[in-house]
Amino acid sequence: MTCRNGGDKCPLLSMNGVTKRFPGVLALADVNLSLYQGEILGLIGENGAGKSTLMNILGGIYAPDTGEVLIEGQPVKLGSVQDALAYGVAIIHQELNLAGNLDVASNIFLGREPADKFSVVKRKKLYDEAAVFARMVGLTAPLNAVVEDLPSAQQQLVEIAKAISQSAKILVLDEPTSSLSDKETQKLFSVMRMLKEKGVSMIYISHRMREIEEMCDRALVLRDGRCVGELAGSEITRDTMVRMMVGRDISRFFPETGDSQAEEPVLSLRQVRCKACKGEFSFDVFRGEVLGVAGLVGAGRTELMRSVFGVEPVLSGEILIDGKKVAIHSPIDAIRHGIALVPEDRKELGLLLEMSIKENVPLPTLPVTPGFLMDDKRDIKLTQAQITALSIKTPSMDQAVECLSGGNQQKVVLAKWLALKPKVLILDEPTRGIDVGSKSEIYRLIRHLADDGIAIIMISSEMEEIVGLSDRVMVMHEGKALGVLNKSELCEERVMQLATGGGC
Questions:
Q1: Quick count: other Cβ atoms within 10 Å of Cβ 448?
Q2: CA 92, CA 156: separation in Å to the nearest integer?
Q3: How far apart are CA 315 and CA 4, in angstroms?
Q4: Fewest CB atoms within 10 Å of the CB: 174, 263, 434, 451?
Q5: Under DSSP, is residue 263 helix (H, G, I), strand (E, B) or coil?
Q6: Do 225 and 29 meet the contact criterion of CB atoms below 8 Å apart?
Q7: pLDDT tens-digit map of 261-274
Q8: What is the DSSP string of 158-225?
Q9: The model's pTM
Q10: Alpha carbon of 74 to those of 275, 277, 366: distances in Å?
Q11: 321 CA to centre of own chain
Q12: What pLDDT is recorded for position 296?
């Protein structure tokens, strides 16, 4: 066993020579990982690099073909999730594993509730013991609150409290900030630092390089199922991580912004009010520009764009396309007027995951009249054209979408709407859960679409993305627009000032 710096401090966890094959795929090839007590280890790599497979082996979901796992220096057999928990390993997945209809206390001790000899839960003892772990992780929600009613950040802390209550020594956090605001993210980081001080070890998986820089003591880089390097301390920089992850330099992460010469707007809102927003909205989006929409979680960005797309009603005001007033009461109306929406949650709202690329791409172009016949030749031609245009990496158009990487899934969502040749393309968090290499591809695609004359509205919670890709940025705060910044005015500090309620 290898000890740190040749001394006597040995890893709490060692994964040695781990190899895992699936039919036609070498997912992991001789991967080594070590984790020390009270350490936060970043695990990074592009989608498909092997991160999930490696953690599923640690979590007892998969068995390795070769290799071994040692905890506290002893070889262990992890044949199930229960085995992993028994050895102190808890994994908090990106999609939280909570019973939404139960309260906080019941979730913390789910399946382990204190009960009498008649199996009746001792509610007072349950709440008393749950309170200990809730305080430990800074959970402020009432213990009797129904979990599904809590914000994402509080649900995240419920998961962590549950893990700690199971005496977790090793905590794996998979993209834990994907649905959190900056403030909520910093709260989570505070909890992580507290757990670290108590000796809990953590493996932190994230596509957000800044978070790896801020939180991790070391970073292990995977590429194509192989470990390609380890970084520590000052070596953990975004440029270095990106270069190791993708195997190449991304010399310019964001493409050059365009120079829209259009004088007439494609889309205009005039004193528009929607159900979930407090103010009136009046703004224009011009042909060939990227209008960023920034704001903290809960600012009303998604709700406003859902109203523009006809999902939610517009209460008052006017929407104009090419200077002409239009009535949009449903998504079908929006589509007819050349508006497309790529939703934030591509898996739930953007794709039919179990169906093929060929079945997903033509969906928005299908007739809505009953009794129509499918045109297979048209659908094949359309799908192949989009696969080529967007460089979707797939063995065939018959591949199920659920088998694609996150970046390629997002390209399929885009392909669906681009087949309609929209005038206005609304992108809600277009790179959520996508690795840095794929992000760079998506950014260039967005810029290319704008250069082709499409008016693009991009909602993003990543400040770097907003500033780096937008021609102009509208900033929202608590359901109101607080200002529109031109390119010359754009900087992260100015956007954040407005997003937190500062004046124009």
A1: 14
A2: 8
A3: 63
A4: 263
A5: coil
A6: yes
A7: 567 899 999 999 99
A8: HHHHHHHHTT-SEEEEESTTTT--HHHHHHHHHHHHHHHHTT-EEEEE-S-HHHHHHH-SEEEEEETT
A9: 0.65
A10: 58, 57, 59
A11: 32
A12: 76
- Give the angle 473-340-320 at the CA atoms, nearest 5°: 70
Q: Distances in Å between the alpha carbon of 370 and those of 366, 374, 377, 380, 417?
A: 11, 12, 20, 22, 22
Closest CA to 200 of 230, 223, 228, 170: 170
Cα 268 to Cα 139, 309, 418, 452, distances in angstroms: 43, 13, 21, 20
| SS3 state at 382 | helix
Rounded-to-integer distance, Cα 152 and Cα 52, Å: 22
Residues in the chain: 504
- Interhelix angle 123-136/152-165, nearest 10 degrees: 110
Cβ(267)–Cβ(339) under 8 Å? yes
| 288, 455 Cβ separation under 8 angstroms | yes
- CB atoms closer than 10 angstroms to residue 341: 26
**Amino acid at residue number 257:** T
Q: Name the 3-class secondary structure at 375.
A: coil
Q: Are 274 and 478 in contact (CB under 8 A)?
A: no
Let me know: does 96 contact 153? Beta carbons within 8 Å: no
